[in-house]
Model the fold of this input.
Amino acid sequence: MASLAIPAENSQRVGLPAIVVLRDGSSILIRAAILTDGERLQRMFYRLSPTTIYRWCFLPVPSLPRWAQTLANIANVDYQNQYAMVASYAGEIIGIARYDRNPASQEAEFGIVIEDVWQRRGLGKLLFGRLIAEARRHQVVTFTAMILGENRPALRLVSSLFDKLTIHWHSGECQVSASMDTFKPDAHTACAISWDYLRSFG
Done:
């Protein structure tokens, strides 16, 4: 496992990691993303199906190094107006979710990518839910996202996390928005563990 050291100036902005157990019994580590996650994210990119890549990029992107680097760049955040969380299993990243906040409006745009073999197993809801909880901790008040109209799994995901969504359709894409006051925290039990404990694994 890579070092999870966070720059001192950001230490108070980063939430604790957690271990969550999926419905199938798999134990997943969810934590804040760090810059050294880049290589693992590039490897995850090459494990994504063309459909998942298309839903993420809105384009039929080929499996080329520059697109793998684009995914890796999601881990480069300032922990204040940008925040990302990753899910990992057996040392490999299997999902990442990120928000980018507009400081002037306290509105943030969210996105998520889950590796195909881990989709439809409850991981997306757990990872996205924890990221939204972090956004609330950082005073984000409104959630927004652009989703392809054909991406029904993503639409179901966001609908499951908020009591009320506003959806505007345009040219096959939909802009969704919701107040953080309508967020529905998942009742799934997760065990919070300390950074010092994680550092003990290297």
Notes: The chain has a mean pLDDT of 86. The radius of gyration is 16 Å. The beta strands are 18-21, 27-32, 82-89, 92-102, 107-114, 142-148, 166-170, 173-179, 190-192. The CA atoms of residues 15 and 134 lie 7 Å apart.
